[in-house]
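My current task is to audit a protein record that another person submitted. What it holds is a sequence and that sequence's fold in token form. Thanks in advance; the entry in question is below.
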Amino acid sequence: MRWRLISTRRARLTASRVSRLSLLVAVAARARGGAVVTPAKTRGRLGNQLFQYASCYAIAVSANATFAARGVLDANARFAARGNEVCRTHEGCCGCGGEIPTASASERLDAPVWWDGRRAATEVARVRAAVEADGTTRFACSGYRQSASFFANDPWLAAKVRDEFSRWSAATRARASELWSRHVLPAAAALGAQVGG
């Protein structure tokens, strides 16, 4: 009787472990997804690019898709020489530096209105459908998207985006500290002296 109880318990534990392992494998496979969202040619300088990246990254996260940003160049010849400023100024941020997966199909996500992110839910649904389908679809995410309404109305998503884009590169932090010490502190001291005098 005792051996039967031990055997039954072992069988249940094994089944439980297999079930949990299967669940983890399924979640991991789903996280890889059948869709990759990439920012299309960026527009403007760093501030504009950050909005576009944040919006497109939020769509990918919401749809459980991959986000990749390697090799994105500026659509405007005036800024093209500056290249991809987000990936240059942020360390390990939002798919920068990784390989963009090979896709069997491609679609576009165009934001018709730069300040209105209400259409993002429709875009998320399109990407999510591709995640759940066979093959890999690459979504070129374009548009100015100059509004936090694309990603800030969901507290969890807003925190995720904020955390992702808080990883400035060491070189950028060093340059910011240099500018602060060379320009901001002296100007503040001079202003303080004028006010105090």
Remarks:
- The first helix runs from residue 2 to 32.
- The longest strand covers residues 105-110.
